[in-house]
Amino acid sequence: MLDRRDPINYVDKEPVPAHIATAPPVAHAALLGLGVYRPRRVVPNSELVDQIDSTDEWIRSRSGIESRRWAGADETIVSMSVAAAADALAASGLAADQIDAVVLATSSQMVLGPSAGAVVATELGMHDTAAYDISAGCAGFCYALGNAAGLVRAGQARHVLVIGVERLSDLLDPTDRTCAFIFADGAGAVVVGPSDSEGIGPTAWGSDGSQTDAIKQDKDFQEYFAEVAVAADGGAAAERPYIRMKGQAVFRWAATFLDKAGRDVLDKSGLTVDDLDAFIPHQANSRITDALIRVLHMPDSVAVARDIVETGNTSAASIPMAMEQVIRSGQARPGDTAMLLGFGAGLAYAGQVVRLPAIV
User: What is the pTM of this model?
Assistant: First the structure.
């Protein structure tokens, strides 16, 4: 261009903007493979009842839980994620170097950085792979799945590894009658990639921040570290942050609002409950699952995930783990049409209709 400071030779013209390339989009995305990791230690209700002044019968009647898995010292957020992801890769027939991005959902990573997703990617042998974490409570896996499907369809990534993982036993007050028997540990992972036909419906999601007190960590880490400093100077011992939950508030919200959420999932996918082969809700509480079946008028022909009985509530890991249990048990098969619906802390929800993936 001519120098604007030269009044004789200068002609005012709009500059032509440089052309920015766009990635070629992909029409359809699908779940290509699924893997899970269940911690070794099985904890039956009988181990917990004395500390919370309860009974096995009461726990079963209130939650449907008979046992849960709690991680050992060597079963970390990263190691459980790596194990689940390795099986998901094997089921999809893909190698780690074919993954372009890792999206990891968790609420129990006890440090802010580095992201667990980045560490998992490196542990799996990936190099220079995009990776990040999502915190959306028990809806986290469906949030991450929505992100992954969007990346694939937009051409930003060809294959995305999605992980839901929790070590919630680290955040449990063993004397808290509202929480100590509910939450558990584990990991689930899926590989998302391009498909000839649609395998992941649009995400229906939302949140209600006015009800943050319904499920929350009872103190932030700044407060906790201040207590640690006081303890180091001879003061009272610091008490780590714990999960606290108002069970009745959560149940009321789930039993009323999630009717709309479930219908939004189906509407966005252009399907009805009669088109479903399986229903895989977040494994929060058997009574909430029963309520959802009623309000959504789910047919008896639809297989309903009940992984909570032996796995407990694993928050962001619960949907992939329940998906695997439904397939492993023979209640549903790869390729079947299933509705996923995650909900919990936030309060937040998210859901999609998917074609069930292969497992190893």
Answer: 0.92
